């Protein structure tokens, strides 16, 4: 007997990834900060009691979810490790997002004691000059690399977060190499969304964006099994993987490590004052729901932006595109540049096929159904809850690439061997 994939996980399953801006305060002043964080004007943080209340709500909505504790700079909160411990004790998987400049031996001990499972370090260059100038602190680069060395020495998983800009896009290959030699587990290549302080920055051209994605796809193939190389805020990578697959790149690797936009579909963000948005780059407005006044389950299931993002009402060429189901464009970038969260992503250089043929392609994709054998469902059930949706999506994408209609444990094992998923 085989069951359809819809019987495994409901379409609107709870989020498996939650990013929480615990503070606006920061010891740096980065040019691209979407929160416009500074140490001087950061305002007051929520209390420890309020923070634990949020954790209770999140744990009730999504038991086992990964909770990214970030800022601003979360290590400026004296209670950060109490919050992390409480999250871990509540069944969540806490990880830390930091600029790395405040990590020392004592911090390492506290990270371990509070059951933080991994650390993300921001890194903008392979040399100090650009990084320190961009983050407005001399010596920041050396401190971040020192933090990476300490984390590796104490067997704490870490990854680098690199934001692509025109000034550093020529360093993509070098920074991936640096991540590999410093024993990072992964490197996330973020593509700038011009919000917050980043609103004043010039974004890449569509052609530069396309070239950068090709470099990332090639690096993902090169470093497979040693380092996860992932594009973020760049769902177009799935199209790149598809286009370059013939004799060059095994696009099945992207199924496990790089994904399309998951805002409102596995992912949400909690802002410093409790506002809830589908992703960090969707700004807080007067109408944004707040976790202190509304139930987070209701926000997740019924929130206006969440419902809209789950719809298929994309505008412009994103709505006409034959990759709209896999990619769909960056919704935060569309909002920032067009004022319409469902508008066209202006950084995409792809021109979809003529509308008539394109609609046929989309309808065919919608009709495709992937079934799971009972044994495969049991194997999926053994995956931690916060990872199930991501694993399910990756396996189904891999099966479609291989032309398989039924997913078996052998298919899952095969993908795991290729991607480590």
Structural class: alpha/beta
- Estimated share of beta-strand residues: 5-15%
* Biggest beta sheet attributes: 9 strands, mixed
**Helix percentage:** 40-55%
Mean pLDDT: 84
Shape: globular
The value of Rg in angstroms is 21 Å
Number of distinct helices: 17
Ends distance: 26 Å
Strand order of the largest sheet: 8-7-6-5-4-3-2-9-10
Could you give the count of β-strands? 12
The helix/strand series, from N terminus to C terminus, equals: EEHEHEHEHHEHEHEHHEEHHHHHEHHEH
Describe the structure.
The chain is of the alpha/beta class and 421 residues long. Helix content is 41%, strand content 12%. It has helices at 48-61, 80-89, 105-113, 128-135, 140-153, 172-181, 206-222, 237-243, 252-257, 296-302, 304-310, 316-320, 331-338, 355-367, 374-381, 385-401, 409-419, and strands at residues 2-4, 17-21, 66-70, 93-98, 119-122, 158-164, 186-191, 228-232, 267-270, 276-277, 371-373, 406-407. The strands form two sheets. Strands 8-7-6-5-4-3-2-9-10 form a nine-stranded mixed beta sheet. A hairpin with a 5-residue loop joins strand 9 and strand 10. The two termini are 26 Å apart.
In short:
The chain has helices at 48-61, 80-89, 105-113, 128-135, 140-153, 172-181, 206-222, 237-243, 252-257, 296-302, 304-310, 316-320, 331-338, 355-367, 374-381, 385-401, 409-419; strands at 2-4, 17-21, 66-70, 93-98, 119-122, 158-164, 186-191, 228-232, 267-270, 276-277, 371-373, 406-407.
